[in-house]
From TrEMBL:
Organism: Galdieria sulphuraria
Stretches assigned to the ABC transporter domain: 114-343
Record keyword Transport present: yes
GO MF, any single term: ATP hydrolysis activity
Entry protein name: Probable ATP-dependent transporter ycf16
PANTHER family referenced in this protein's UniProt entry, alphabetically: ALIPHATIC SULFONATES IMPORT ATP-BINDING PROTEIN SSUB (PTHR42788:SF13), TAURINE IMPORT ATP-BINDING PROTEIN-RELATED (PTHR42788)
Annotated InterPro entries: AAA+_ATPase, AAA-associated_dom_C, ABC_transporter-like_ATP-bd, ABC_transporter-like_CS, ABC_transporter_ATP-bind, P-loop_NTPase
Keywords attached to this entry: ATP-binding, Hydrolase, Nucleotide-binding, Transport
Length: 559
């Protein structure tokens, strides 16, 4: 029997099959999963508190119900627990070796810091994100992970109240959020410091609610101390290294004493060692409770960072940004990156990210809980695959065909490589690898399956083909692939245009792209389409006139 318990302020009884008794368990301070072994352990150590079953507990269907003991912290804001105490009973759903994410969320729901309900954002006619639903709980680090353009920063800005959604509701501490979220602070990727202000002045700037200048200064000093910047109070940003500048960014956020700390790729502008150092220091402050922050929402491109930091990861898809998957990371800190469970999770997240055709909510992941427990359980029992609603034109990945061809050389004699290893071999982050794979799939030279990337037969031929043959293979794939509909549409348009077979790019932007993409994304899509179309010799581009034209040697060109 496994039980999932959140219990920092009161006591719970566990049912023991072995003794047919419910057993008292003392307060604990975090979410924990107990398996039969740990129950057995407590049965031995707490034998004096055995109580006959029918006095304290009963069973309804597959739910075990038991009365809650009286150590109740009246100051707690946990309304579900308060209600449970009032009714003097609490329900724990027990199943052999499984605890689902949904159950966990239900049980946690009363300590929710932030909640998104059906949140969407549309700018003009362009949908940026849609149907975003999630909750962030106290004591939790939640990571937003997804390809570029999937709306990670947009969600973060909405959480901080900097952007207002056009659909749905955002609740902070149970109240609907209107305007700036006073309980939140943001750490930006590019530090966002004022160069003309000193470290102290930058940190003091955001402090709200301080009664006097002295009080504000004291708060800033405390944050500067905490984040290891003492001695640099009077320095200007230009005197500091990247790592030190980001420390100022953190100090500025911490000085506000935010309950919700939002971070937008805070380590990505730093070199690896500096980033790792800052990350582990932040984690230490958070775990030791030295910062008043209750919940952390972090945007990252790095799978390893997400699995290394997060309690849960939201995986986003794009066109428009939507939630594809929600995963719990059931590993305790400090996390051993070389452990099998850590590597399993990384593989799993890689697989999810590289399967853009599927939406997967509540995914099963076999993971080893910890070395000590040595028990494997499923994070969630049900895997549900829903095909992604296709947008009018699938987004073309922003890569050059030459780079995709270059990727094939890393296969050597192998036909199949583990995705994560491929990323490591190429020293590419998922955000750089993902578009290359997408392009490979569109061109029918790669196939991505569970955690692996494979060369197709076409891919094997492509890797040894002459340049002309490569071009004709790409041409064939672009005219057939569902993912290249934009290129097919442009090609068709050019062929329909009598005699001159020329079309101004503005026409393509206005009539095709800007209906479905933001202006900047439309421009990017056009650039990719031109690059791919040129490579395949489907059409050309005349920069001075800004016109696309049909290639003169197009065999299908009308006379
Ligand atoms: N105000 C806006 N007007 C038009 N388009 C916007 C606006 N805000 C965001 N977008 C577009 O919405 C998409 C999502 O942007 P966002 O920055 O949230 O994505 P992201 O996942 O954080 O991307 P990245 O990882 O590249 O930072 C992008 O294509 C962006 O161009």
């Amino acid at each position: 029997m496994n039980l999932l318990v959140h219990n920092d302020s009161f006591q719970v009884f566990f049912y023991s099959h072995a003794t047919s008794c419910f057993q008292f368990y003392p307060p604990i301070f975090s979410w924990k999963v107990f398996n039969t072994n740990s129950l057995q352990h407590y049965r031995q150590t707490m034998s004096s508190s055995f109580t006959p079953m029918d006095k304290l507990c009963w069973r309804t269907g597959n739910k075990y119900c038991c009365r809650v003991a009286t150590q109740w912290n009246k100051n707690s804001r946990d309304t579900r627990m308060r209600q449970s105490t009032k009714n003097r009973k609490i329900y724990w759903q027990c199943r052999s070796t499984q605890v689902s994410v949904e159950e966990e969320q239900q049980q946690q729901s009363s300590v929710c810091t932030l909640q998104f309900k059906n949140v969407g954002l549309q700018v003009g006619k362009v949908p940026i994100i849609r149907d975003i639903n999630f909750s962030l709980f106290e004591g939790e680090i939640l990571c937003l992970l997804g390809p570029s353009g999937s709306g990670k920063s947009t969600i973060l800005r909405i959480a901080a109240g900097l952007t207002r959604p056009t659909e749905g509701f955002v609740y902070y501490q149970g109240k609907e959020l209107h305007g700036i979220n006073e309980g939140a602070a943001i750490v930006f990727q590019n530090f966002a410091l004022f160069p003309w202000l000193t470290v102290s002045e930058n940190v003091e700037l955001g402090i709200r609610g301080a009664k006097s200048k002295i009080q504000r200064k004291a708060k800033a000093e405390k944050a500067i101390d905490m984040i290891g910047l003492d001695g640099y109070e009077n320095a200007y940003p230009k005197e500091l290294s990247g790592g030190m500048r980001q420390r100022v960014g953190f100090a500025r956020a911490i000085a506000v004493e935010p309950e919700l700390l939002c971070m937008d790729e805070p380590f990505s502008a730093l070199d690896v060692l500096t980033g790792e150092n800052l990350k582990s220091e932040l984690l230490r402050l958070w775990q030791a409770g030295e910062i008043p922050t209750k919940s952390i929402l972090i945007v990252t491109h790095s799978i390893e960072e997400a699995v290394g930091l997060a309690d849960r990861i939201i995986i986003l898809g794009k066109d428009p940004g939507h939630i594809r998957s929600l995963l719990r990371i059931p590993l305790s800190h400090p996390r051993d990156r070389k452990s099998r469970s850590f590597q399993n999770l990384i593989d799993h997240v890689y697989t999810l990210l590289s399967r853009p055709d599927a939406t997967c909510l509540s995914e099963s992941i076999p993971v080893v809980v910890s070395k000590k427990q040595k028990s494997t359980f499923l994070v969630s029992s049900s895997a549900r695959l829903v095909s992604q609603e296709s947008s009018k034109y699938p987004t073309l990945p922003s890569v050059r065909i030459g780079s995709v061809a270059g990727l094939l050389s890393f296969f050597g004699d192998e036909r199949c490589i583990d995705l994560y290893r491929l990323g490591q071999r190429l020293q590419l982050d998922v955000d750089d690898l993902y578009p290359l794979l997408e392009a490979g799939v569109i061109l029918n030279i790669l196939k991505v399956t569970e955690g692996d990337v494979m060369l197709t037969d076409q891919g094997s031929r492509f890797s040894v083909a002459s340049i002309d043959d490569k071009k004709s293979m790409v041409r064939e794939a672009l005219l057939q692939s569902e993912g290249a509909r934009l290129i097919q549409q442009i090609y068709w348009l050019l062929r329909q245009t009598k005699r001159v077979h020329r079309v101004p790019e503005e026409l393509i932007l206005d009539t095709i792209l800007e209906k479905y993409f933001s202006p900047s994304e439309s421009r990017r899509q056009l650039e990719v389409a031109i690059e791919w179309g040129r490579y395949a010799e489907l059409f050309g581009y005349d920069a001075p006139s800004g016109e696309l034209f049909l290639d003169e040697e197009d065999p299908q060109q009308e006379e």
